[in-house]
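Reviewers asked in the last cycle whether our approach scales beyond single polypeptides. To address this, we selected a multi-component target totalling 241 residues and predicted its structure end to end. The input consisted of the following lines:
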Amino acid sequence: MLKRRILVTGGSRGIGRAVVVELLKQGHDVVTISRSPSPYSDVSSVTTDLGDLGHLKAVLSSARELLEENKPFDVLVNNAGICSWQKFPMQHLGLVRELRRTMNTNFNSPVVLTNHFLKDLQPFDSKTNARVVNLTSRVAHRGDSEELFYAASKAALLNFTKSMSRDRRFADKVGFWSVSPCWVETDMMTSAGKTETELTADIPIGRTVRTAEVANVVSFLVNEAPMASTGSDFAITGGAF
Ligand SMILES: NC(=O)c1ccc[n+]([C@@H]2O[C@H](COP(=O)([O-])OP(=O)(O)OC[C@H]3O[C@@H](n4cnc5c(N)ncnc54)[C@H](OP(=O)(O)O)[C@@H]3O)[C@@H](O)[C@H]2O)c1
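The resulting structure, written as structure tokens, was:
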């Protein structure tokens, strides 16, 4: 297996943590980013708020420096995300604050990071084989009346993934994929405060998704997915759409 230099955002827990563990097990060099310090001493990490967009160029440089050779990353997994709950109509100040926070974390920061990741990699050639994997969600496809901004931020990220894959300058050099799970067993799912019955009501396999299942798909996209599949979205929804 080709050893890659991989940046995974939000690797301190949940899906990101499972992705990091899987990729480290495969022998890749992995760095992760989160707001709180990584609780795992075996993982190289940068502590920062990704919603702070102005700092992201410097954050990427700091992350590079954690690896043995200070070379560009060749894989970016935009996994960090926050869920926020709202129902309209809302108070103006709360609405503006939540909208900005959700879009900055879930959409704007992956876009800015992708830009700097690509700038670092230039010039592209047939050996580049770079990959960007974006964690979106089932709600990116169908909307959600209780998570308006979250669903919109994930739909924007899904669309961004497709737009990037249409740029012929990246053809066979950089691949872009998205992954859209339904409920996955993490803090984010717990914080929704829903019962097991509510969570699984419209999931045909009758259970929520395990973090290792998402990590498995991300691993496939990072290591093996053919470049011809760029722009694809990989649903992990137990048959639910
Ligand atoms: N769990 C689900 O049901 C589900 C379903 C569909 C899609 N997803 C998506 O999958 C991804 C991972 O979700 P998860 O369930 O693993 O969530 P999680 O358990 O809440 O973990 C989120 C991760 O992102 C980091 N993070 C959040 N905001 C950040 C910020 N502003 N700056 C830096 N790091 C930040 C967190 O670390 P800190 O808190 O330390 O910053 C943590 O490592 C998200 O994009 C989520 O939207 C999840």
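The chain has one domain: 5-236. We regard this as preliminary and will revisit it once experimental data from Aim 1 are available.
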